[in-house]
Amino acid sequence: MSDVNRTLARSIPETEIHDDADLLTRLEQRLGFVHARQRLGIEQDHAQRVFGGGGINFFHPENWYSMQTLMRWTFKLAGMYEWGRRNARNIQVIHNPVRHRKIPAAFKGFRLLHLTDLHVDMDEAITARLLEITGSLEYDLCVITGDYRAQTYGPEEGALEGMRRLRERLRGEAYAIFGNHDSIRMLPPLEDMGYRMLMNESALIDRGGEKIQIVGVDDPHYYRVDNLQMAAQGLDLSCYTLLLSHTPEIFKQAAHAGMDLMLCGHTHGGQVCLPGGTAITLDSDCPRFVGRGNWRWRDMDGYTSTGAGSSLLPVRFNCPPEVVVHTFYPG
Q1: Which long-range contacts (CB under 8 A, 24 or more apart) does 226-234 make?
Q2: Which helix (H) or strand (E) holds 298?
Q3: What is the pLDDT of residue 44?
Q4: Boundaries of each Calcineurin-like phosphoesterase domain copy (predicted)?
């Protein structure tokens, strides 16, 4: 075991060290010492905390699992739980046109399937509906902006199995990033499945000899391991550039860094909203205008998807789940 692996293994029970040796080696080689150690360390230290310390966001309702029981019984006593579950299974397909002067002519009509907040191990009926929809859609490229696991800690096997089933339905390449529900331990298996994980990295998409750029950052919400400067190294900002971020919270940094389009999720659009779609809470440190749907900040366009899955409980009110097909047009 390398010195880096020994360092990372100190936070792992002795019985798990040998089983995790290959994983730690792959993470070291894939991410480097600092990123791997930081991500794993925060996962260990804050796995079941509601209140985060050390500069991480102070309050995380998604970590407060006793809230799930309270909410479930509240909805059941009000006779709303099954109604909310039906709403959560009713995934909408949103078609969103994207026009920008920097979109190359070769990308006219290019369709980008955007999935987010899948939580594929929470409710089999929701996951089955997601697989049904994605298998029937026409698109050129898929991007996924994080949150594959239902809980923020614990086993990853259920989420990985759901993501394997999804990958079998997706056509062509699928670029993905991590959210605050995802463990860095999921990185090697997801890449083995064929997902192209962007861990503060970028990729070039070629179509007819013309190009656009995709930038992806690791979770900015809870883990705070996003590094836009690293991800954007070597970019040609005269080329149309889109950013994948789990949360819209870094929208100002992204706009000032020259991103043209930001795709994100995390907020679930509120998930439980008042009539008319007004979110009770967005669980995100950002203004409400970036909390759902299309928005714009300075010269950057943005879209925050309500997501296909549900958080805490598989229920939704006045906030339908969605998958989004963004269609590009020069303009």
Answers
A1: 226/200, 226/250, 227/200, 228/200, 228/253, 228/254, 228/257, 229/257, 230/200, 230/201, 231/198, 231/200, 231/201, 231/202, 232/202, 232/257, 232/258, 233/202, 234/202
A2: none
A3: 81
A4: 110-269
Report the distance separating Cα 217 and Cα 180, nearest Å: 12
DSSP E strands: which ranges in 59-184? 92-100, 111-115, 141-144, 174-176
Q: Using N-to-C axis directions, what is the helix angle for 33-45 and 14-31, rounded to 10°?
A: 140
pLDDT confidence of residue 53:
44
Q: Which domains does the chain show, CATH number per domain?
A: 3-45 (no CATH), 63-330 (3.60.21.10)
- The per-residue pLDDT for 245 is 98
Give the pairing of strands 201-207 and 111-115. unpaired
User: Which pLDDT tens digit goes with each residue over 165-222?
Assistant: 999 999 999 999 999 999 999 999 999 999 999 999 999 999 999 999 999 999 999 8
Task: Identify the burial level of 38 via C-beta atoms within 10 angstroms of its C-beta, where 0-12 means exposed, 13-18 middle and 19 or more buried.
Answer: middle
Tokens of 85: 């579950």
pLDDT, tens only, 90-138: 999 999 999 999 999 999 999 999 999 999 999 999 999 999 999 999 9
Tokens of 295: 């928005």
Q: Do 144 and 195 form a contact (C-beta atoms < 8 A)?
A: yes
Whole-model pTM: value is 0.88
- Rounded distance, CA 284 to CA 113, Å? 24
| Amino acid letter for position 157 | E
